[in-house]
C-alpha cells in the first residue's frame, strides 16, 4: 500500500492574521512563526513543502535554496511578496485569497466618511476634555456637521470595492459619480470628480499612472468643504500637499487607512501634522473579524485543495 504523503507546513508571519487558523485535513506537521525577517526565510523554510506567508518577501535568491518547496499559500490578495516568475519556471504553485473584503473595506470607508462629515472625533474629544460641561446651552456648534444624504460621492477606481462603496452610498441617499480606465454608463472624468464631489474616495491600485493621482493641483480643484478618503494604497496621494491643503482649509478633512510607508516607523508628514480633521487608521480596513475569518478559512481551503489535487485560487495557472 502506498504511504500517505506527509506535508511540512511553515507559516512565516502568523501575527498578520488576528483570528484562529484551522489545521488542514491531511497528515502534516505545522510550524508557525509570529514574524520572520529577511535573513531567516531560507532557514525556516528549508524543510517546508508548503509555505504560508502574508507579507514576508520570498524572492529568487531564497527560492533557489529551497528545492523542497512546492506551494506558497499567500494569506492575502496581493502576491507581490513572491517572485512569481521564478515560481512559474520551477513549478512552485502560488495561491492567494479572493473577494474577502467586499463588506469590510466599504464599511470602513463609510465609517471614515460619517466620522468626517459629522465631525464625530472633534466632538468626542471636546466632551472627553470637559468642554460640554462648561457651556450654558444644551449643545454647541463648534464643528460643522453635514448630512451624508444629498451629498455627492466621487469614486476614483470603480472596480469591486469602488462599486461596493457606491452601492452603499446610494442606499444612504448620496449621488455617486465615478471615474476609471474602462468605460461604463455614467462614467465621468477625474476633473469632474474633483470639482463636483463632497466626498472623494480612492479605490484604484497604486501604479505608475496613479502615483500621486491626488497632488497639490488636484486638491486645489476640490471643494473647500469636501473630504478625501484613501483606503486603497499609500502613494496615491501626495502626503505633503495634503497636509498643506488641510492646514490652509483648501479641503475640510481626510480619512486615511494607508500611508506611503507602512508601518511608519520613521514618521510621516500626516502623523506629524496632528490635525483634528485628519483621521488615520493603521491599514485595518480589511480586518473585520468576519473578513479575517473568511480569509483564514480560504487560506486553508486553498492548501487542502492543492494537496487533494484540485487546486483553487492559483495565481500561476
Ligand atoms: N485598506 C485595506 O485594508 C484594503 C483591503 C483590500 C483592498 N485594498 C485596496 O483597494 C484597492 C481596490 O481594490 P479592488 O478589489 O476594488 O480592486 P479592483 O481591481 O476590483 O478595482 C480597481 C479599479 O481601479 C481602476 N483603475 C486602475 N487605474 C486607474 C486609474 N489610473 N484611474 C482610475 N481608475 C483606475 C481599475 O481599472 C479597476 O477597475 C486596491 O488598491 C487594493 O489594494 C485595500
TrEMBL record:
Does the entry feature the keyword Metal-binding, yes or no? no
Pfam families in UniProt: 2-Hacid_dh (PF00389), 2-Hacid_dh_C (PF02826)
What Gene3D superfamilies is this protein classified in?
NAD(P)-binding Rossmann-like Domain
Which GO biological process categories is it annotated with? L-serine biosynthetic process
Sorted alphabetically, the keyword list is: NAD, Oxidoreductase, Pyruvate
Spell out the InterPro entries in the cross-references: D-iso_2-hydroxyacid_DH_PdxB, D-isomer_2_OHA_DH_cat_dom, D-isomer_DH_CS, D-isomer_DH_NAD-bd, NAD(P)-bd_dom_sf
- Family stated for the protein in its record: Belongs to the D-isomer specific 2-hydroxyacid dehydrogenase family.
This chain belongs to which protein, by name? Hydroxypyruvate reductase
Name its species: Methylovirgula ligni
Amino acid at each position: 500500500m502506498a504511504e500517505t504523503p506527509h506535508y511540512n507546513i511553515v507559516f512565516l508571519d502568523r501575527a498578520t492574521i488576528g483570528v484562529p487558523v484551522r489545521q488542514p485535513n491531511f497528515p502534516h506537521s505545522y510550524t508557525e512563526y509570529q514574524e520572520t525577517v529577511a535573513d531567516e526565510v531560507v532557514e525556516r523554510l528549508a524543510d517546508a513543502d508548503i509555505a504560508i506567508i502574508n507579507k514576508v518577501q520570498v524572492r529568487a535568491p531564497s527560492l533557489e535554496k529551497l528545492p523542497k518547496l512546492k506551494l506558497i499559500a499567500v494569506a492575502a490578495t496581493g502576491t507581490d511578496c513572491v517572485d512569481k516568475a521564478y515560481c512559474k519556471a520551477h513549478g512552485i504553485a502560488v495561491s492567494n485569497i479572493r473577494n474577502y473584503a467586499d463588506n469590510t473595506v466599504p464599511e470602513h470607508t463609510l465609517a471614515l466618511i460619517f466620522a468626517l462629515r459629522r465631525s464625530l472625533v472633534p466632538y468626542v474629544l471636546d466632551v472627553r476634555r470637559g468642554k460640554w460641561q462648561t457651556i450654558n446651552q444644551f449643545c454647541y456648534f463648534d464643528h460643522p456637521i453635514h448630512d451624508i444624504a444629498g451629498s455627492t460621492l466621487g469614486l476614483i477606481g470603480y472596480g469591486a470595492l469602488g462599486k461596493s462603496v457606491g452601492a452603499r452610498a446610494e442606499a444612504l441617499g448620496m449621488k455617486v459619480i465615478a471615474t476609471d480606465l474602462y468605460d461604463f454608463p455614467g462614467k465621468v472624468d477625474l476633473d469632474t470628480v474633483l470639482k463636483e464631489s463632497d466626498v472623494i474616495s480612492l479605490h484604484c491600485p497604486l501604479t505608475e499612472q496613479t502615483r500621486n493621482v491626488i497632488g497639490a493641483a488636484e486638491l486645489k480643484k476640490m471643494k473647500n468643504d469636501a473630504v478625501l478618503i484613501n483606503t486603497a494604497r499609500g502613494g496615491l496621494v501626495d502626503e505633503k500637499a495634503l497636509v498643506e491643503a488641510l492646514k490652509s482649509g483648501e479641503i475640510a478633512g481626510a480619512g486615511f487607512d494607508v500611508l506611503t510607508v507602512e508601518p511608519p516607523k520613521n514618521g510621516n508628514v500626516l502623523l506629524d501634522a496632528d490635525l483634528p480633521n485628519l483621521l488615520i487608521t493603521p491599514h485595518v480596513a480589511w480586518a473585520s473579524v468576519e473578513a479575517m475569518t473568511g480569509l483564514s478559512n480560504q487560506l486553508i481551503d486553498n492548501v487542502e485543495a492543492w494537496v487533494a489535487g484540485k487546486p483553487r485560487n492559483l495565481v500561476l495557472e
